[in-house]
Sequence to fold (222 residues):
Amino acid sequence: MIELYTAATPNGHKISIALEELGLDYQVHALDLAAKEQKQSAFLKINPNGRIPAIVDHDNDDFAVFESGAILLYLAEKTGQLLPAEAKARSQVIQWLMFQMSGVGPMMGQANVFYRYFPKKIPEAIERYQNEGRRLFEVMDSQLAHSQYLAGNDYSIADIASWPWVNIHEWSGISIDGLPHLQRWLQLIAARPAVQRGLQIPAPSNETAGEKAERIRNMVSR
Fold:
């Protein structure tokens, strides 16, 4: 059994979606990021960086894994699913996984901070991160013009890594207009039952979008 330490963020949803896709038995521990539960000593023993998500695999000597990309690779290798065995195909999946980890996630994360949460609006920062996010979307759209999924015609952890981030493009203030292949891919993955289940983990709170934005804005301004 796997223990999942998570929160309702794109990085957290990567792992809940993967666990649902793989059909693995897992238990959810939802961490309150505003209360800084991710910085408490018990969790820091699992992830020294104090960020979600993280897992503990009790079927593998209580092995702990942190960083969402590393978790996706671990789960794919553990099950032999969502990651090809053939060397070139495997490399393509890992390349697009790293594209998300180094580009899509960080750029959209910064867009979120400056567009939604930062107490002072800095137009240059907002424009810089939204423009870079849009550029990355255009790269994905070009790739998806030639294949059904990011790393070819098979669904993989590369898609699971990027989809939760692209799915919140409106929250980041980044348009997907004029990107038909990216739009097709978004809809294709959104229709998967495991993705729909994964998005509900942890269970959504009753907090409104405005209340969430205000809470995170207060955190950023501290």
Q: What stands out?
A: The beta strands are 2-6, 26-30, 54-57, 63-66. The chain has a mean pLDDT of 94. Residues 69 and 98 are 8 Å apart (CA to CA).
